[in-house]
Every structure is written in C-alpha cells, then in structure tokens.
Amino acid sequence: MSMRGDKKPTLYVYNWGDYIDEDVIDRFEKEYDVRVVYDTFSTNEDMYVKVTSGGSKYDVLFPSDYMIKRMIDEDLLEKIDLDNVPNAKYIDPRFKDLDHDPNNEYSVPYMWGTLGILYNKKMVSEPVDSWDILWDPKYSKQILMVDSQRDAVGIALQKLGYSLNSVDRNELEAAKQELIKQKDLVLAYVVDEAKDKMIAEEAALAVVWSGDAVFAMRENPNLDYAVPKNGGNLWFDGMVIPKTTQNKELAEAFINFMNEPAIALANAEYTGYSTPHMEARKMLPQELANNKAAYPADEDIANTEVFVHVGEMLREYDRIWTEVKAY
Amino acid sequence: MVRFFKKCYVSIIFAFLYAPILVLTLYSFNDSRSRGNWGGFTLRWYSELFQNRQILSSLYNTVMIAVLSAVIATVIGTAAAIGLHALQGYKRKVVMNLTYIPVINPDIVTGISLMLLFVFSNLKLGFLTMLLAHITFNIPYVILSVLPKLKQLDSNLYEAALDLGATPWYAFRHVILPEIMPGVVTGLLLAFTLSIDDFVISFFTTGSGVANLSITVYSMARLGINPTINAVSTLMFLSVLILLIVVNLRTNKDNPKRGRVNEKQAYNRSRRFSTARSRIHEHAR
Amino acid sequence: MKTKWAASPYLVWMVIFIVVPILLVCYYSLTVPAETGREFSLANFHRFLEPVYMKVLFRSVKLAVIATAICFVVGYPLAYILARSNFQYKNILVMLLVVPMWMNFLLRTYAWLTILERNGILNALLTWLGLPRVNILYTESAVVLGMVYNFLPFMVLPIFSVLSKIDHSIIEAAEDLGANSLTVFRRIIFPLSLPGVISGITMVFMPAVTTFVISRLLGGGQFTLIGNLIEQQFLYVGDWGFGSAISLVMMILIMLSMAVMSRFAGEERGLGLW
User: Fold this and answer.
1) How many folded domains does chain C comprise?
2) CB-CB neighbors (< 8 A) of B122 in chain A
3) What digits encode the pLDDT tens for the residues C54-97?
4) Is C94 found in the same domain as C12?
5) By CB neighbour count within 10 A (0-12 exposed, 13-18 middle, 19+ buried), where does C73 fall?
6) What is the CATH number of domain A10-112+235-295?
7) Backbone dihedral region of B87: left (phi > 0), alpha (psi from -120 to 50 degrees) or beta?
8) Cα four-point dihedral sign C158, C161, C162, C164
C-alpha cells in the first residue's frame, strides 16, 4: 500500500462498481510506479453529477454510449491521442465509429453488453422473453428492479411499445404510471447488489446488465438470462478522459494498459462482460466464449435499442424517477 | 419473581443489542460465502482484508483525519472557549447560538451545506475538504467541553499572574491551561471519536475516491453481503473494546470514584443532542 | 481578562464554515438555473408541496415516530431497572449498553442485512424451531427495526441518568405518607424523569427523521425518506436548488422542534417538582 507522503504521480479512476479485475490496478501501479485512486459509481447519472458538480479531479471515466455523447456535446472530454494508445488497434472495427463517437476521438471501447432479465429457473417456469413478466403479480416481492433512471424508465417505455429514447411527454407520463404500478411488486431497487442477491436466491427476477448475469450464472447454475424479444437495450461502455484531468499522459497510458491483451482478457474473464478486444476474445475460455448471455447471436439482439442522449428532456426523466422512488 | 422478570427483560434487550455483532463476528470466520450455512472455520477474509487496497487506504484516511481534525479543533476550540469566556452580553449569546448550529443541525444538512461551500469556492473535494468539515463539526464539542472548566476557574488567578510579571502566554501555559486540562482532554477525545464514527458529513464532503472507513463500508455493502466487511467490523469492535478497557483501567486508577467515567462516556456517545440540550438548559437559566 | 481576541480564529472559522454554507443553502433554495447563472424563484419550495413529496415527509415522520415510541416503551423500563440495580452491577450494565454504540453506525446497520434476508439467519433459526419464515428485509418494519437498534441507547441513557439522580428521600417520604408504589411512580418518579424522557425522545427522533442510510440499506430503496430525497437531489440528479429547499425546510423544522422541546422540558421540570 502506498502512503500519501510519497511523491508518486496519482491517477484518479472512476469506474462502475465491480467492473474491473482489481489485480489489474496493482499491476498498473507497479509497472508505472504510480498511485491509483480508484472510485466507483452505480449509474451513468451518478457519475455525471459527481464529475460536473465541480468538486472532482478524475483522470479516467467509464461512461456508456449516450453519456459519452452528452459529455462530448457539453465539452467535458479531452480528445484522446491515439498515438499514445497503440493497443487500440486490437479493438474490433465493429465497435469503432459508433454514433456516440463517430471518429473515435474521445473514447476507447471498454466493454459492451445488453440489459435484460436474470431469473432463477427454479422459481420461474414460464419462458422469460418480455419485460411484462416484471409486472406479473405472481412474482410479487420477488423482483429486483434496476435503480437507474434511464434503464428503469426505458424498460417501462419498451413495455408500452414505445422507444426507450422517447421524448414524448405523454409516453413518459404513461411510463411513470407503469413504474408506480410496478412498485408494489418490487422487492428492492438495486444496482450492484442484484448479482449477490440472485446468487443467494433471494429473489426470482432481476433486471441486470449482461456481465453481471454471466458472473451470477457462474456462481449459481439455477440462474439464466434473457434479453426481451420485444426490446432490450444494447450498450457500449468506453474509457474517456475528462477535462478535469491533471495528468492526461498517464490517463492515456492507463487506457493503453487496459488494452494489453492479457489485461483485457483478465477484465473480461473477471467481470463477465463482453470485450470488444479481438485478441482477448480469441483467448477467452470456451465456457465464456460460448456463453449466449455474454456473446449473443445477432438475431437475439435484433430488436435491441441503443440509448441516445435525450437533451433537455432529461429533466423529465430525472423528475419521473424521483417521483417513482418517492411514491 | 419480579427479579426474575427483570433479569429476563434486561437479557433480551442485551441479546438484541449484541446479536448482530455476534453474528458478524461468527460469520467473519465462515468459510462459505453463502449466509445460510456454516462452511467451516477460516481466516481467509482477514487475509483478504489486509490485501484490500480500498479498505487499507480508507483506514489510513480515517485515522489521519481523526487525529488531525481532533488536534486542530482542540487548539482552535480551546482558544475560542477562553475568548468566549471573556465575552459578555448579547455578543456572547449570538456566538454561542451559532456554535450550536452544527451540533443541532442534522448531519445531512451540515454535509450538503459544506459541500456547497467547497464546490462554490472551487476546492476539489477530497482529503482536505473532508478534514475541514471534520474540524468544523468538532470545534463546538471542544468548546462545550472546555467552557465549564473555565467557569470553575478563579478569574483572579490570571490577573494575579500578570500582576506578578508573567507574560500573557506564560500565564496561560502555567496558570490557566493546567486548570482546564481535563476539559481539553475530554474535548480532544470526543472530537477524535466523533471523527472516527462520522459517515454522513464525510460522504458529502469528499470525492475523487478519497474515502474513510464508513464510506468504504457503505459502498461495499451496496455490492451485497461481503464477508470481508464482517472481518472489518470484528476487528473494529475488538479495538474499541480494548480501547475502552484500557481507558477505564487508566481512569479508575486516577479517579477512585468509579462509575462516573462510564456515565460520562455514555453521555459523550449520545453526542450532539445531549450536549446541545444540556447546554441550552444552562443558558436558559 | 483581556482574552477575547483568543476567540477570533474561531469566529473567522465559524463565519466561513457555518454561516456562509447556510447562506449558500438559502441562496440555492431560492433560485433556479436561468440562461445566465441563477434567478430568484420560489419554485423549489412549491415543488416540495406537491403531494408526492408530502408523502415522503409524512412517511419520514411516521417511521420516526414509530421508532421513537418503540424506543420509549422498551427503553424506559430498561433505564428504570438499570437505575435501580445495585452499584457494581449497574456500571457493568451501563458499560454494556454503551459498547455497541462504539461500533461504527454503518456496520451496525449492515449487520441486519445478513440476519433479515430471506435465506438469512433469522429464517434459518425460525425454520429450525419449526416456525413459519418471515420476509422482513426491504419492508418498512426493517427500516423501523434499524432505527430502534441504532438509537435505543440514546433513549435509555438520558432517562437512566435522570433516574439515577432522583433523591431517594423524596420517594421514602412519599411512601411514609402512605403512597403505594404505583402512585409513587406516577406522581413522583415519572414526572421527575420527564427531562430525561424528553431528551431521549429528541435524541431518537432527530436522527431517525433525517436518516438516509438505514432506509437505503434496509428499505431497498423503496421507502424514500426526506434524507434520501436530499441525497438523491445532490448526488444523483444534481438539482441543488430543490435539494437545498428540502434541507432548509428540514433544518427549520428541527430547530423549531428543538426549541419547543427544550421549553417544554424546562416547564415540566418545574411543574413536576412542586
């Protein structure tokens, strides 16, 4: 452990909870003789508020697609000098030039995945293929709902047949009513605990991201994961450097390090999320590489939508989620 | 019969108070992640704990901030108490009322108001801001511990020392300070324990990954149940127990009147409100 | 004594870290973001009056009142027994009461997660005893339980302290005058202990009504309390105006009730004695 007194350069990393193999951080510290201060968030919105409220000094963040777009639009990100990140060459071209960062100037892909339902086969016998099951009174107090506003509101919108990027006030109001209706059936609103709860068989159904599902299924074979046929969300998380950085070169070195094949492999194996790194993908153990939750067939995610930044209407999302939680 | 009933009642409540601690302790030695069953004895959570960078760095932050904030608050607070003691009339009333604000105010309000201040003044949230916040909520407790001692002090002592040719500093060091020392020490210890225990104010006034132990436990608990936290709590509980026993043995030696110490500690722990309220009463009179 | 100047560092500190922050809370609560900077508006307070937030306020007060009532009903007899027990024994018991409070507040709350879970220890115990299982975690009861567990000693200690100080000769005098033990309790002991009771009620109610940790960990994010609302506005939504408005309302309510309580306690003491 490094003490405060030493004069080593410090890198401030802000990542999702349980979204890295922690040994990787130690290895980076040793190899580069630096200190890493590592902090975690649970949703894109938490991260955004922390970073923009003015009190933080992070060097590397891990936002998702729509949040990357928002941060680019609001001029919060530094351009990444790809000459300092040679390992970016390993990124599968499929994950380059995406809508949120068309020229790959601001972000380097970290993981991708889906949002879906993790369920316990012992407790749920019917096929899980739609969000509707999260409103089924049969599973009252057995449902773990995701405590993240875009995801939760998005689910309700898709259930009603709307786009999860809706900016129509009437549609959003209807989604809010759906979420309030669902509240009695929900055991708890959680993000990171869902994995642990499902492994311990504390609930029958949980809304989780695909990697968490893979992680949980590894620990408890009774669990399975499904992306709703009538929707679902496909997402891409990237590594970005915010303007608050005080050590951009070190941040780039970190991003490059994260794309070393062995490191990318370690992260993909530990987290269970799907790696966009071609070399890491090749080296994955069979059981993970063939896992449908992590690496779904194209037709399984044909109907998924990617979040886009909703601009001014975001206030409405904030309000809806505050009111649903308060209700 | 009544005696028996009383004993039962007391036992049940103490069982309620200690059951969770016992459970945590027991499960910190459980060689199974799942909670329902016992998987055998292990020390693995303890070894994991000592390799967990997050816990170690937050432990370091907790102790550093507690020591620094307690010492700084004691210096400022003791000086303030001496100054306040000399103050009279409405000025004193205004200052005293302001002093109670952090004592009475809900922690969450103190926390967010300080956060607004730090962000407003462009300070980066982190170790320094957390330290400033801790000093702020500690000072009133030091003042409230020292003031009663000053009241007991014969005010002529200081004048007499000056008349005899002592410099004000010499008079303070050798006449006043020894007299008020017990109050200063109480204030220091109180500040230290309040700082160690704080979660809410720290939670709002830190950032960029600088966490104290409470914040780390909170973020770990949000990941689900984790045996490493059980190990942390067992160790913390043990150190508290040892500390209490040592303090008690020491004070019992100094002070033949047993019992007062416990009661005083009890009162210190019931912190904000008791201190504030008893002082408010004193004022009202 | 010419030592007034010694308070000046503190006065400066106090203005910067106590007065200015509260003024900032007032400023944010009375303004909303505008095209340039912020502009004056009462919208934040208006918003707080909406039914959904009144519901939150009501829930916070309700749960805190229930927790305080339970603490009082359970804590008073305990304080009474402790105060009446013999000397040696008493110190050990008070010590035992204080020790759990020395443990970190978060750990104490966290401990209940393991116990109350569906497949947790409580249910394992109930099954073993052949009793039906219960689902308590993530209910309002769990939140109340967490409050009672954390704050019970705050109720017991002040009552105990007042009861211990009661002059025994008053009680003996009453008994000599023919009062039975119930009358002695009702007419003498209880009125004399009222300052302790009020102190206890304040010390339980205040942290209970402002908590956000207990409801977050044991309530599963379902039972939003005032504290959660403030936390959410500042950390997850970033609406400082609304968050400040709620904080200000809460602060004023607490200050008012403290003032009322201490006045009430003062008067009661006088009435009770004579």
Assistant:
1) 2
2) 54
3) 999 999 999 999 999 999 999 999 999 999 887 677 878 888 88
4) no
5) exposed
6) 3.40.190.10
7) beta
8) positive
- C270 pLDDT tier (thresholds 50, 70, 90): very low
Count of Cβ atoms closer than 10 Å to residue A261 Cβ: 16
Closest alpha carbon to A50 in C37, C215, B131, B219: B219
C32 and C153 assigned to the same domain: no
Residues C152 and C177 in one domain: yes
Query: How close B231 gets to chain C, by Cα (Å)?
Result: 11
Model confidence, pTM: 0.88
**CATH homologous superfamily of A113-233+300-326:** Periplasmic binding protein-like II (3.40.190.10)
Same domain for C32 and C72, yes or no, is no
Residue A264 one-letter amino acid: A
Q: Quote the domain boundaries for residue C94.
A: 48-273
When mean pLDDT is compared across A76-80, B234-238, C210-214, the lowest value belongs to B234-238
| DSSP secondary structure letter of residue A277 | B
**Residue A240: φ, ψ to 5°:** -130, 165
Compute how many other C-beta atoms are within 10 angstroms of the C-beta atom of residue A270.
17
- Would you list the domain boundaries of chain B? 41-284
Strand (E) or helix (H) holding C61:
helix C51-84
Q: What are B94's two structure tokens?
A: 């205004």
H or E, element range at A286: helix A286-289
Contact B263, C161 (CB under 8 A): yes
B209 touches chain A (CB under 8 A): yes
- Domain spanning B41-284, CATH class: mainly alpha
d(CA A117, CA A131) in angstroms, rounded, equals 8
| Contacting A residues, span 38-77, partner chain C, CB-CB under 8 Å | 43, 45-46, 48-50, 52-53
Provide the ipTM.
Answer: 0.86
